[in-house]
Structures are given as structure tokens and as C-alpha cells.
Amino acid sequence: MVRGWHRQVVEQERDGEQQDHLGDAYRASGNLNEAAVSYAKALEVDPEHEGAREKLEELNRQHPDRMLILYALSKARRAAGQQERAVEAARGAFRQMPGHGQRMELAQALIASESAEEAWTILAPLQDEPEMVSLYAQLGVRQIHFAYNRNNSVADGCHDVERGLTPLGRR
Known about the structure:
Distance between the termini: 56 Å
Oligomer: single chain
Shape: elongated
């Protein structure tokens, strides 16, 4: 059943109704994460698709600790202008798995809810962990500004009180 819907959706990717049906097929087969992703795609294509929104909300009620469901729900709520509820879902997804995609979704939800300063702290590249420097080096990064405009846990920015490097920055 999923294979048939998947083929049809590949041909008509920008059809919210097809994405919704694919979500139903995934859900019927027990693949709830893929169902959530399909419902979210249906809402990306058609933000007014109430069926997909209701199914995604229902999945969240039944499985509130599933990261991909929370992640998809945050995107859908953000698209619907439900910014505070989007932040709530994004925080849940980030708690479940604090990866890059979840961090970015939480930051986008915070920015949309006019909490840009909190978004900035979530996006802080070193995340108060000096070990991150070696990770960035492995990824090919050769230069990082410890601070630019605002002070942070590592160093001072140009628009705040001048203190220099913090003890964490010296490490």
C-alpha cells in the first residue's frame, strides 16, 4: 500500500492531498515517523489542509515523545502562524534529540515568536563546550569568531561591556 502511494506522490510531490494519503498509508503500516513527515509535507504544500493538521496533532497526542512527530508538528504550527505552540513542539523535539535540524527548527520557531535573543543562544556555535573546537576543525573550519555583537560565555562582543575572554574562552 505504501509503495503505491509513494510512487504516486513522487510524481505529484507538490500535491497536499497525495502527501496526506501517503501519511495515512505510512500510519496504517505502523511507520509513524514517516507518517508525520508526510502530513507535515502536506501542510507545507497546503497550509489549510485540516485533515493533515488533525492527523499530525492526533499522532502527537498518542505519541508525545516521538522526536520526528514533534519536529513535524513544529513546522506545521509555524506555517499556520501558531508560533507559541510551534516553540513548544520544537522544544520537545530538541529535548528528545538535540541535533542540528532540531536546533535549527527551535531557533526558527523562536524567531517567528519574536524571541530572537533566545534563538541566538541556541545557535551559539561552541555551545559552551571547548571540545566543539576540535569537532569544527575536523569539519574543516579554520576560523571562528568567539563573539561579534553581544557578549557570550566565551568572549565579549563589540556592543556590550568589555571584559575580554572569559575563563571558558581561555580554555
